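I'll show a sample.
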Amino acid sequence: MPANDTPRYSSVRFRLTRAGWVFAVLTVFLAMAALRTQQSMVFVMLGAFLGALIASGALARRMVTAAAVHRDAPDRVWQNQPVHLGYFVRNVRRRGSALGLGVEEIAPEGLEAAEGFCVHLPPRATFRAGARFAARRRGR
């Protein structure tokens, strides 16, 4: 974690979940229905759906950029022995909680993926998630 406790900002890429894809498809169908029927209430519903998509993206970006992640890993690891990792997620904002944060290790070939999930992270709080895996091959 940086010394001044500010997160490093990088590009945030969104990946839709299955529920997100269903919501996006329903929004497209609602847009087609609104254009076809020209009913004002259908346009209101379409506006609500689009507003929910935009608000969800903005809030998700704000929560992800407020999280600073630090990994605590052992100095040495032996092949086929369990390795314990610790992930520390800190909300660096003074106001505003972070909700639904997931930490997932992008594991190289031969390692099992490690992950953690935090439902609610208050301002200036730290969450610790642990993971355990076994290295199946030798080397860095």
